[in-house]
Amino acid sequence: MIRPLVTCCALLIVLSNNAFGQLAPSPGPEHKILQDDVGTWEATMKLWMAPNTDPVEATGVEENKSINGGFWVVQNYSANILGQAMTGHGMTGYDPQTKKFVGVWTDSMSPHMMKMEGTYNADTKTMEMTYKGFDTLTNRAIEGKATTRWIDQDTRLMEMWAPAPGSNEMFKSMEISYKRKK
User: Is the pTM of this model over 0.90?
Assistant: First the structure.
């Protein structure tokens, strides 16, 4: 009695594994775009605290790893800004349901998570994301825009726009130039 039950259970496990293996999705071309960022990048950063001000400049390192079979890329960022160590962590993927790139970002400068969603233009090699977050300096929820343009396989430029303090007028708040570390 036990032997047929064990055999039946073993057969169900084998069949379910095969069925699962056949149904498991594979990364698509959108995921390949993200995989191009995998590796270590040296970053040169400019931060503007308000419109028409001089930028604060800093350097950093971003290490990007592919996870979950190539569906997602995890970013680990570290920099020194005005003598203060800063770390940041993000995760970016592609949602085939909404046909949008999606991501989240957290860093040591804020207890809040930023959520992003956007599209990629293959002609200009540019990803444009809108984001929602919380600005701890102005103590308010904000929405903004970030673009990343791939200049070549080893160079990309990220620019971010945010609402100016005390208004909803958008200004360029950050620029990071990335060079792949060889």
Answer: no
